[in-house]
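Same chain as my last thread, 447 residues:
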Amino acid sequence: DQYWVVDGVLDCERRDKLVSCFIGKLSGGEMVRRGFSSALGVLPGSILRGKEEEVIHALIKCSKITEGTEKWAEARRDAVKALGCVVCTAQGWLSHQLVPHVYDCFLLALEDYTVDRRGDTGAWVREAAMGGVEALTLSLLAGGEEKVQATIVSQLMPCLAQQATEKIARTRGHAGKVFTSLLWATAASGRDLPGVPRLQEVREIFPKEADINWTVESETFPKFVQLLHLPEYSERILLGLIVSIGGLTERLVKNASESMFAQLRLMNTSQLETFASSMLVVFKRHQKVDRVTIPMFKFIDQLLTSSSLENLLENNTNQFSFQLFSLCKAEISKSGDPNKIMSSSDVFCQLLQSADINTVKKCLVQLSIFLCHKFPRVRKSTAEKMYEALLTFTENEIVPEDDLDAVMELLSDTQWDDSVDTLRPIRNKICEMAGVPAPTVLKKTTE
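reply #2:
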């Protein structure tokens, strides 16, 4: 910064030109944005003073997804990193009115799930946001707990908990460290960080002296699933668990599911109902968001297979099974993705164990539609799963006992890769024996 000081006085005109030039470059291409964002992030306080508001707003704008920049995750990551550096550098004289804007930017960055051929590149942005959250919050707290807005912290902590239960080990590790860092942070006065939901209860789960490797699934998940019974955290934790349990990595799926099922076994009926309601809320909120709903089907299939929600399914006055059916049906409507449809049929088959006759009938109708779906693999997969479900849930009398053997025989012996015209009478016969109306062919049909 000495370059801009003449006779001990900052040359503001030259400084302004430099900063304005850097900010102007933030509207350029990806590599240009990355370079100039990083440059703004390392400007010393003497250069920033008086221009910090302009710089902060420019970096916030650069960190957002806009048309044509959807895949520029690295540019957004560098803008978020630079924003964290700038606010910490200028924190001593920063206007308190700017702080909420910065936190809003970090919260938005925590929802960046950009995917390209390299995978979940949005994770870079989320990790940068977590680093910024920690640095800014601890910096503000060092100046006194009154500088930290409790409402912002109450939003941040569940978001960090969600990141600590998602599928990328590096991201989980970063989130776990930041979460516990803020959980145990104190001001110079010795007072705790204001706004942490259920502070004492959460601290009991995460002792200060605990030595935990947050990237290891077997250490992370048993801790964070304990937050499921706290309503302030439950939806966010569920969102992370859905992505992990519905994922493809065997070790991750095993540790995440075992931890969750162990926690569910400790819950009473009231807590299980709250858990089920939270799951429905998450499903509804992310309807048609494939990043969530595709693993959601696998998650629900495992959940219903585990018998964890058996009490809810066996209660014919509980609306959980029907609400779940409705959400699944809405999710696959107009979907042309055979994998998504086949995953949904797993859930429909699991719902056949429900004590609610209405739900069972509707599931049978939906499955019968799949038996004449335009994709042969959907038809074959559905027939196999229906056969298994009817065999598993024999005691429920899903199909009248006199017709059960005939239905099972049709499901197992029919060549479901034949033409739909050949299969439709067989499907209709199954519907007749099962006591449900056969689907009718419309002009616009999903069959």
